Amino acid sequence: MAAHTSVTRLLVEQRMDLYRAYLDEMAAWGAEWTRASFSSEYPIRLTSAELAELEGELDAVLKKFKERGDTATANDDIEDREHVAVHLYGFPFRV
């Protein structure tokens, strides 16, 4: 468990570094990409079963868009297409 936690922490740091780099370079992406980019937080109250259901639904949506991008890339339809990072975390916390 400790090794998994250490690796997960490293991945979170790498993801944050990637997002920080985007924030530093945001102006270079132009208005279209800047308007399309987002950062959201939704503190909600769920059961563990609802959290698992939410993950499944979000996974289905993201897979749809990944497949669309993969198909376009396979067909050399890469104009205006960029790599996009979407980071999702769903975890319980107490206030």
Count of alpha and pi helical runs: 3
Average pLDDT metric: 96
Helix coverage percent: 55-70%
Sketch the major β-sheet: none
Helix-strand string: HHH
Unreliable residue stretches:
none
Rg on CA atoms, Å = 17 Å
Structural class: mainly alpha
* Total strands: 0
| Principal-axis shape | globular
Q: In whole angstroms, how far apart are the ends?
A: 25 Å
Structure description:
The chain has 95 residues and is mostly helical. Helices cover 61% and strands 0% of the residues. It has helices at residues 2-25, 30-36, 48-74. The longest helix has 27 residues, at 48-74. It is globular, with a radius of gyration of 17 Å. The mean pLDDT is 96.
Q: How would you concisely characterize the structure shown here?
A:
This protein is an all-alpha fold and 95 residues long. It is 61% helix and 0% strand.
